[in-house]
């Protein structure tokens, strides 16, 4: 007998998830990136699939991958590639969770040959990337549910609530780097959820898989309200 899940509350729903870092090339040997491992977003993709959703995962460069073989993974490198993939998949998505650590700036020009060392000082000119989540929020349909992350080191609640409002989100997951065992590369995380109705849920430190389940439960609750 096969394992048939008893409950699939998100059956028939399409979910789009982003995870991992983006990598912005400077020249053929150098890049700008960040410490994201992708573990939190990958765990969310798995948890959404376990709840019955059909999941597409837009994943930046990382050695981690979803455990659930039904998750369709789209590998990207840069913020621009992540943007294009998200835009293409957004119209048919019912649930979108943006857990990726997207570069805010990229080198203005990518040099095609290795930059040689020269002066004592050197300046890299950067330009802003598209804010993917903000673009999706501005174009959100009535039945679409949008979840963002807020990665902060200070003024956490204020900044998280600002992102919830400014990016037109239904739920924001505050990830405070102040907390022990939280954030980049850990197998655990400690987050606080803020939803569009003003509900605040502080979760204790737990595995990223358990945090992902709690986030998916919050999504299912908000989905019921939509109806
Ligand atoms: N995000 C995005 N596209 C970007 C930057 C961020 O989609 N170019 C998303 C992230 O995936 C996350 C949310 O926006 O879900 C918040 O990211 P964060 O870096 O915390 O906030 P920013 O809006 O980029 O603001 P700042 O870095 O200045 O705090
Ligand atoms: Ca940012």
Automatic annotation (TrEMBL):
<dbReference type="GO" id="GO:0010181">
    <property type="term" value="F:FMN binding"/>
</dbReference>
<comment type="similarity">
    <text>In the N-terminal section; belongs to the HFCD (homo-oligomeric flavin containing Cys decarboxylase) superfamily.</text>
</comment>
<keyword id="KW-0436">Ligase</keyword>
<feature type="region of interest" description="Phosphopantothenate--cysteine ligase">
    <location>
        <begin position="15"/>
        <end position="227"/>
    </location>
</feature>
<dbReference type="GO" id="GO:0015937">
    <property type="term" value="P:coenzyme A biosynthetic process"/>
</dbReference>
<dbReference type="GO" id="GO:0071513">
    <property type="term" value="C:phosphopantothenoylcysteine decarboxylase complex"/>
</dbReference>
<comment type="function">
    <text>Catalyzes two sequential steps in the biosynthesis of coenzyme A. In the first step cysteine is conjugated to 4'-phosphopantothenate to form 4-phosphopantothenoylcysteine. In the second step the latter compound is decarboxylated to form 4'-phosphopantotheine.</text>
</comment>
<comment type="similarity">
    <text>In the C-terminal section; belongs to the PPC synthetase family.</text>
</comment>
<dbReference type="GO" id="GO:0015941">
    <property type="term" value="P:pantothenate catabolic process"/>
</dbReference>
<comment type="pathway">
    <text>Cofactor biosynthesis; coenzyme A biosynthesis; CoA from (R)-pantothenate: step 3/5.</text>
</comment>
<feature type="binding site">
    <location>
        <position position="104"/>
    </location>
    <ligand>
        <name>CTP</name>
    </ligand>
</feature>
<protein>
    <recommendedName>
        <fullName>Coenzyme A biosynthesis bifunctional protein CoaBC</fullName>
        <ecNumber>4.1.1.36</ecNumber>
        <ecNumber>6.3.2.5</ecNumber>
    </recommendedName>
</protein>
<dbReference type="GO" id="GO:0004633">
    <property type="term" value="F:phosphopantothenoylcysteine decarboxylase activity"/>
</dbReference>
<feature type="binding site">
    <location>
        <position position="167"/>
    </location>
    <ligand>
        <name>CTP</name>
    </ligand>
</feature>
<feature type="domain" description="DNA/pantothenate metabolism flavoprotein C-terminal">
    <location>
        <begin position="10"/>
        <end position="221"/>
    </location>
</feature>
<keyword id="KW-0210">Decarboxylase</keyword>
<feature type="binding site">
    <location>
        <position position="114"/>
    </location>
    <ligand>
        <name>CTP</name>
    </ligand>
</feature>
<keyword id="KW-0511">Multifunctional enzyme</keyword>
<keyword id="KW-0479">Metal-binding</keyword>
<feature type="binding site">
    <location>
        <position position="149"/>
    </location>
    <ligand>
        <name>CTP</name>
    </ligand>
</feature>
<comment type="pathway">
    <text>Cofactor biosynthesis; coenzyme A biosynthesis; CoA from (R)-pantothenate: step 2/5.</text>
</comment>
<keyword id="KW-0285">Flavoprotein</keyword>
<keyword id="KW-0460">Magnesium</keyword>
<dbReference type="GO" id="GO:0046872">
    <property type="term" value="F:metal ion binding"/>
</dbReference>
<keyword id="KW-0288">FMN</keyword>
<comment type="function">
    <text>Catalyzes two steps in the biosynthesis of coenzyme A. In the first step cysteine is conjugated to 4'-phosphopantothenate to form 4-phosphopantothenoylcysteine, in the latter compound is decarboxylated to form 4'-phosphopantotheine.</text>
</comment>
<dbReference type="GO" id="GO:0004632">
    <property type="term" value="F:phosphopantothenate--cysteine ligase activity"/>
</dbReference>
<keyword id="KW-0456">Lyase</keyword>
<feature type="binding site">
    <location>
        <position position="163"/>
    </location>
    <ligand>
        <name>CTP</name>
    </ligand>
</feature>
């Amino acid at each position: 007998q096969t394992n048939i899940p008893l409950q699939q509350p998100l059956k028939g729903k399409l979910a789009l998830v982003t995870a991992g870092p983006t990598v912005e090339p400077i020249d053929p040997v150098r890049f700008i990136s960040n410490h994201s491992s992708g573990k939190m977003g990958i765990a969310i993709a798995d948890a959404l699939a376990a709840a019955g959703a059909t999941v597409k995962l837009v994943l930046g460069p990382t050695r981690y991958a979803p455990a659930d073989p039904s998750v369709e993974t789209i590998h990207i490198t840069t913020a621009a590639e992540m943007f294009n993939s998200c835009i293409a998949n957004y119209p048919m998505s019912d649930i979108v969770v943006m857990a990726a650590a997207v570069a805010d700036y990229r080198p203005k020009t990518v040099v095609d040959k290795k930059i040689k060392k020269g002066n004592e000082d050197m300046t890299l000119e950067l330009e802003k990337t598209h804010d993917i989540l903000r673009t999706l929020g501005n174009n959100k349909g009535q039945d679409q549910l949008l979840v963002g992350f807020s990665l902060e080191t200070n003024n956490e609640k204020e900044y998280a609530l600002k992102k919830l409002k400014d990016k037109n989100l239904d739920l924001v997951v505050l990830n405070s780097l102040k907390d022990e065992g939280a954030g980049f590369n850990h197998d655990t995380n400690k987050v606080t959820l803020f939803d569009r109705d003003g509900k605040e849920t502080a979760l204790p430190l737990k595995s990223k898989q358990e945090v992902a389940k709690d986030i998916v439960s919050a999504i299912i609750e908000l989905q019921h309200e939509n109806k």
